[in-house]
Design brief:
The protein is of the alpha/beta class. 36% of the residues lie in helices and 18% in strands.
Length: 327
């Protein structure tokens, strides 16, 4: 899927943006793409970014939110050069009014940067960024819009948000989905996109290189269960720790290893501090994946109904299969 991404951009309506007068033939041949991302760049974005920039036809730049202390902030990826990025730093609001104000400011900041860069294509990486991209398109009517749908949430399925998304999708020339279920159970089911919409499935998964160097943990009497990736679902996390505690009471030597980030990061840190059988390895980059999976005997890959994003499959489920680790 990664290898065909450049061709997908070329074959889609995104490649039809009119050329600006006064550009040389070399400049006309190289499309300007701006990615809008409301966090530090994650794996899927980095892979697509590097692939497109390696093509003679494209020049890609990234405008991203530099969330240094957020619970959902990913480690800064060093595979994208600083000169290719435009970081935006803005504090997260703590209360509803503060969060609402910050969202409005964020839309303005991202839109302003997109307008300043004057791209042929503006590609948004979540719904908030799609709103910002649409605002920028008002001032750049020749620019095409692309969108990557990586996740869903209950609030996205409310009446007002459904109406908003229908209006936004009318302007989107190409949509990537990280799960085929997003197309069938969300975009099509709720009538968000027209029948002829250009939708492409591209999985949000580590590249093959991420699995090189894995060495299975030597079998010992004790057992370590790993929760590696995004921390989502308070009930699932608490249940895992409670089950391990019960097993230890019955005589089993079981430990739990958490590694990653997410909305429940503070909960994970608290559990690691309060118990002697739970450890937290902190944030990790994808080249750390083989070493992390080499420390566990089994994986826990559960998203329960305390997490409001209904269409989801934990990446660690598939990663565990690739490493041959029981899930």
């Amino acid at each position: 899927a990664y290898a065909s991404t450049a061709n997908l951009f070329t074959a889609s309506k995104l490649s039809d943006s009119p050329e600006r007068p006064g550009k040389s033939s070399e400049k006309r041949r190289r499309k300007e793409i701006v990615f809008l991302f409301a966090n530090r760049p994650q794996l899927l974005l980095v892979n697509v970014f590097r692939l497109l920039n390696a093509q003679d036809e494209y020049r890609v730049r990234l405008v991203y939110m530099n969330r240094a202390r957020s619970r959902v902030s990913v480690p800064m990826n060093d595979l994208i050069r600083p000169e290719e990025c435009v970081p935006i730093t803005w504090p997260d609001g703590k209360r509803f009014i503060g969060k609402l104000f910050n969202r409005l400011v964020m839309f303005f900041l991202f839109s302003r940067q997109a307008v300043r860069l004057k791209p042929d294509i503006i590609h948004a990486w979540n719904l908030e960024m799609l709103i910002a991209a649409r605002l920028a398109q008002v001032f750049l009517p020749r620019a095409k819009l692309g969108y990557t749908l990586q996740d869903t949430a209950a609030w996205m399925m409310t009446g007002p948000m459904i109406a908003l998304q229908r209006r936004l999708y009318r302007r989107v020339a190409l949509t990537f989905v990280t799960s085929r279920g997003f197309e069938s159970e969300f975009l099509r089911k709720f009538g968000l996109v027209p029948e002829e919409a250009n939708i492409v499935h591209i999985p949000n998964a580590p590249t093959r290189e991420s699995f090189i160097g894995f060495s299975a943990r030597a079998h010992v009497r004790s057992m370590t269960i790993g929760y590696i990736g995004a921390f989502k679902g308070a009930l699932g996390i608490e249940t895992l720790v409670a089950a391990a505690r019960e097993a230890r009471i019955r005589g089993a030597e079981i430990g739990v290893l958490f590694a990653g980030i997410g909305l429940e990061r503070l909960r994970v840190e608290r559990l690691a501090a309060e118990t002697d059988f739970v450890s937290y390895a902190g944030e990790f980059k994808h080249n750390d994946i083989p070493a992390l999976y080499g420390q566990v005997d089994a994986l826990y890959a559960v998203y329960d109904n305390s997490y409001d994003k209904q269409i989801h499959l934990a990446c660690r489920f598939c990663e565990g299969i690739c490493f041959g680790i029981p899930v």
